[in-house]
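User: My collaborator sent over this chain with a note saying "see what the structure looks like." That's all I know about it. Can you take a look?
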Amino acid sequence: MVGERNLRAVAEVSGGLPVMFAGSPDITDVAALLDTVDGIILTGARANVHPTRFNVDPCEKHEPYDIHRDEVALALSVACVSRGIPLFGICRGLQEMNVAFGGSLHPEIREIPGRMNHRMPRLENGEIHPDPTVVFADRHDVDLTPGGAFAKILGCEKIRVNSLHGQGILEPGKRVLIEGIAEDGTIEAIRIAEAPTFALGVQWHAEYDPQHNPINRKLFEAFGQALAARQKAAA
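Assistant: Without extra context I'll predict from the sequence alone. Here is the result:
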């Protein structure tokens, strides 16, 4: 599934034509897909990346998993960077990028001493809060690397973002550069080192209201600029 917010962000802010592709390796030819598109967004999703991808035993309490999406997304992450195709990872997408380059994840960031609860707001009965403005409200600060890609795109070194995740980066991959850290130490923004084009990941849901949220708008605009540059080079 792909949420409509992701599709509209691509169409209305990045200026692209959103095309969904199957998260099943038996029917998704990664090379053929990348011959067809100008860029890839790895969206958020409920399922956790399977722990065996970073040498950890799985646990029922951290389900659901989606091994088919894992296979497609991890291969896409490496292939996009190798071929110079813009790549934008959002929430689970950031986690996939990290694992693709050899990093590891923690299944419940809130269980690490000193960390806050990064999961989405819920009602007292446990149900998801019905108001999206509450669910996607800004909840914590993120300090950005001075002079880094995010600081240049956003024009500042501190931002405030939403938070809707349980799993998060534990150890960054070999080419994963940390460019944003939450006030509790959680990794919130990454860049793939020596990528020839846009290869960024964010832990928050940047697809939420990019028409009015200046942080999210600038990220999707930057992704759109990378798409246009890719298209121009191909032409």
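A starting point for your reply to your collaborator: The mean pLDDT is 95.
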